[in-house]
Amino acid sequence: MRAIELADVGRAYGERVALSGVTLAVEEGETLAVFGANGAGKTTLLRILASLLRPHRGEARVLGHVLPKEGWAVRGKVGFLGHDPLLYRDLTARENLEFHARLHKVPFARIDELLEAVGLARRADDPVHTFSRGMIQRTAVARAVLHAPELLLLDEPLAGLDPGAAALVEPLISGGTRVVISHDPTFRGDLTLGLRDGRVAFCERDVTTDDVRALYA
Ligand SMILES: Nc1ncnc2c1ncn2[C@@H]1O[C@H](COP(=O)(O)OP(=O)(O)OP(=O)(O)O)[C@@H](O)[C@H]1O
Fold first, then answer.
1. What would the pLDDT profile of 62-113 be if each residue is shown by its tens digit?
2. Which of 11, 65, 82, 172 would you call most buried, defined as having the most Cβ atoms within 10 angstroms of its Cβ?
3. What is the chain's alpha carbon radius of gyration, rounded to the nearest angstrom?
4. Secondary-structure percent of the chain, ordered helix, strand, coil, rounded to 5
5. Pocket test for ligand 1, best of 15, 16, 81 (most atoms within 8 A of CB)
6. Probe residue for ligand 1, chosen from 17, 19, 42, 81 as the CB with the greatest number of ligand atoms within 8 Å
7. What are 22's strand-pairing partners?
8. Is residue 167 in some structural domain?
9. What is the pTM of this model?
10. pLDDT tens-digit series, residues 6-42
């Protein structure tokens, strides 16, 4: 099954066109890597796929659901990790994960597993506002994968992580269907999308590091 199908998708903020003419398909189990300079439209695309933002043009289908009409169905099935960690800062890491576990009807045993997996078992009962940036990111990853989503939408998931933390997090965000915004030109998906000023510069299965670097020239 196709996990994502976009046909001529576009989005503007007032007069400013943030994204236009995006057409692509991602099969179940595949990774779409997204590259582009600051302001190229990457976050806008990710938010459309998460059904957090309506497309203004084109047709979008995610996990078999037409957006924006069936956005409610998509929101429960995706794991979204954006720039904002979507955590309550005065709650502990465990309380944040319990909150999301209740929403998604996930057994609490999964929380202990995840806290262990991201190396936060010892700090699990500290409020998030006492955490370092990397610790917040690790908690945010645990939150995004908690309900074993069918599709992961990840904006620079390893940002702020030291190599040890990145190695802990990587297995949690690998293996399934994913869209990953990256600034590492050596990162590859099954399909690689390059955005320039909101338009598709390339969307290919084979791209070179030079193709990716050219987006930032
Ligand atoms: N809420 C908003 N209101 C107005 N313009 C916006 C809004 N969000 C984004 N934009 C504009 O849309 C364009 C694309 O922004 P977007 O955040 O999608 O880029 P990006 O590729 O994710 O950038 P970055 O790498 O800096 O995160 C930019 O010109 C930005 O200024």
1. 999 999 999 999 999 999 999 999 999 999 999 999 999 999 999 999 999 9
2. 11
3. 17
4. 30, 30, 35
5. 16
6. 42
7. 9
8. no
9. 0.96
10. 999 999 999 999 999 999 999 999 999 999 999 999 9
CB-CB contact of 160 with 1 (8 Å): no
Interface predicted TM-score (ipTM) = 0.98
Q: Which amino acid is at 185?
A: P
Same domain, 156 and 214: yes
Residue 41 Cβ < 6 Å to ligand 1: yes
Cα of 13 vs centre of ligand 1, distance in Å, is 9
Is the bond preceding 163 in cis, omega lying within 30 degrees of 0? no
Nearest-CA residue for ligand 1 atom 29 is 39
- Total structural domains within the chain: 2
Q: 199 C-alpha vs ligand 1 centroid, how far in Å? A: 13
> What is the distance between the alpha carbons of residues 134 and 140, in angstroms, rounded to a whole number?
10
The protein residue whose alpha carbon is closest to atom 18 in ligand 1 is 41
Are 71 and 103 part of one and the same domain?
A: no
Whether 113 and 212 map to the same domain: the answer is: no
> What end-to-end distance do the CA atoms of the chain give, in Å?
37
Q: Is 16 in the pocket of ligand 1 (CB under 6 A)?
A: yes
